[in-house]
Amino acid sequence: MRSQDGQAPRWMYYIGVEDIDAAMEKIKAGGGQVLNGPHQIPGGEYSLHARDPQGAAFGLVGPRIAQR
């Protein structure tokens, strides 16, 4: 079954982190790509979507320790 925009359903795994900004920098340093975010979500934490160097998509969720 596909959605109205033609996308097939899929799972997104989210990993909890202690500091979303530090984790984002580690993704970039390790050759990954941040696709979007971080965006604040209800409850005050932040989430982002990323891709590892092999192309696997995942999400992170956690607080923003040092405001930019």
Task: Identify the notable features of this structure and list them briefly.
68 residues, single chain, globular, 1 helix, 2,3-Dihydroxybiphenyl 1,2-Dioxygenase, domain 1, alpha+beta, 4-stranded mixed β-sheet
Describe the protein:
A hairpin with a 5-residue loop joins strand 3 and strand 4 (57-62). This protein has one domain (14-62): 2,3-Dihydroxybiphenyl 1,2-Dioxygenase, domain 1 (Roll). It has one helix at 20-29; strands spanning 14-16, 33-40, 46-51, 57-62. It has 68 residues and is an alpha+beta fold. Helix content is 15%, strand content 34%. The protein is built from one helix and four strands; from the N terminus they run E-H-E-E-E. The mean pLDDT is 91. It has a four-stranded mixed sheet, with helices on one face.
Which strand order does the major sheet show?
1-4-3-2
Helix share bin: 10-25%
CATH homologous superfamily title: 2,3-Dihydroxybiphenyl 1,2-Dioxygenase, domain 1
Number of DSSP strand runs: 4
Stretches where pLDDT is under 50 for at least 5 consecutive residues are none
Do you know the CATH architecture? Roll
Count of discrete alpha- or pi-helical segments spanning 4 or more residues: 1
Shape: globular
C-alpha-based Rg, rounded: 13 Å
